[in-house]
Amino acid sequence: MKDVIALSGLGDIKSLAKSSTFKKDIWLNQAYIETGGSNKGFFFLLGGKVSKFKAPTMSPKGTDLAFQLTLDLSKSPELIRSLAATMGESEQADSELKKDIEPLGITIEDALKKSNATLTPAIDFDQNSKLDLGEISMGRPAIVGRIDGLNWIWDKLGDKIIESNGLPMTRTEDAGVVTYKLLTTFKDMIQGYLPFIVVDNNKD
């Protein structure tokens, strides 16, 4: 157990601080973990440098909840092998990491090493339009999400994912920006929602 804690980086935590600051019309919640300069294990997966907070430029006006998470999986194969070794499963872990992902043309290990993404979801609960959930109701949520850093995967799998979901979606492209939209006939079937996906091939 001590080996697992050491490899995960959790044993390097020296202190933890949290803050909640009101700025203009929003609450900005932050957390700071002091590890004495250590950036190994799970902490490496959260990325190195602090990236610009993207939510303010992409969220609906009146957004109630938004957060940003960076996932850097480039060293996860190393972490997986180290953890597997403590459990006596080194060969199995190595075998799994070396398996091919046929649609991508690379191994699981190589795919993980290339994966460094930033996830930014935001939700706005519209209290003027209620969503009935049976015994309870809530403000209808408007949801928007952004993923940076995974265009290389979408380029190879995106159209296949859209085709395999069985839903009729239109595809349009303009200046490298591809938009997938669900047909309007489905709007009443999913509580009035009409989801769409936009992929900007000019950026990552």
Observed structural traits:
four-stranded antiparallel β-sheet; alpha+beta; three-stranded antiparallel β-sheet; 204 residues; globular
Characterization of the model:
The protein has 204 residues and is α+β, with helices and mostly antiparallel strands. It has a domain at 150-204. The protein contains 7 helices and 11 strands. The strands form 4 sheets. Strands 3, 4, 7 and 8 form a 4-stranded antiparallel β-sheet that branches. The protein has a 3-stranded antiparallel β-sheet with strand order 9-10-11, with helices on one face. Strand 7 and strand 8 form a beta hairpin. Helix 1 (2-8) runs antiparallel to helix 4.
Short description:
The protein contains 7 helices and 11 strands. The chain has 204 residues and is of the alpha+beta class.
* SS field, number of helical segments: 7
Shape: globular
Q: What's the SSE pattern? A: HEEHHEEHHEEHEEHEEE
Separation of the first and last Cα atoms: 39 Å
- Proportion of strand residues: 35-45%
User: How many strand elements?
Assistant: 11
